[in-house]
Write a structure and sequence with these properties.
115 residues; globular
């Protein structure tokens, strides 16, 4: 099992910035990727950003150029720096860990961007 603890959500005005953090513990061997998904009210959960164990990154088109995902392998932590936030970024953000045979989710952290 992998346990994930998220932090960093909150309320911010449009144009502002937030940084999300997610620390993994437990059976953290063989992690393929860590990332952030988000789910806005009434919408399906979608990938926002992902970083693979080899350092490759993947972003949703809607966040490219504004969000940056990074990781600290020594701390088993993944970060999502979110700049130039827009009201449409409002969502619950979920940390996700991918292993070869399983996927793990954090409890979610709320991000609200006011206009």
């Amino acid at each position: 099992q992998v346990q994930l603890v998220e932090s960093g959500g909150g309320l911010v005005q449009a144009g502002g910035a937030l940084r999300l953090s997610c620390t993994a513990s437990g059976n953290i061997s063989s992690i393929v990727a860590m990332g952030w998904h988000r789910q806005a009210p009434g919408k399906q959960r979608e990938l926002a950003a992902r970083i693979f164990s080899d350092g490759r990154t993947k972003y949703a088109d809607s966040v490219k150029g504004r969000f940056t995902i990074s990781s600290d392998s020594a701390e088993n932590t993944v970060y999502l720096q979110m700049n130039s936030l827009k009201p449409e970024d409002t969502a619950v953000y979920y940390c996700n860990v991918l292993k070869l045979s399983a996927s793990y989710w954090g409890q979610g952290t709320q991000v609200i961007v006011s206009s």
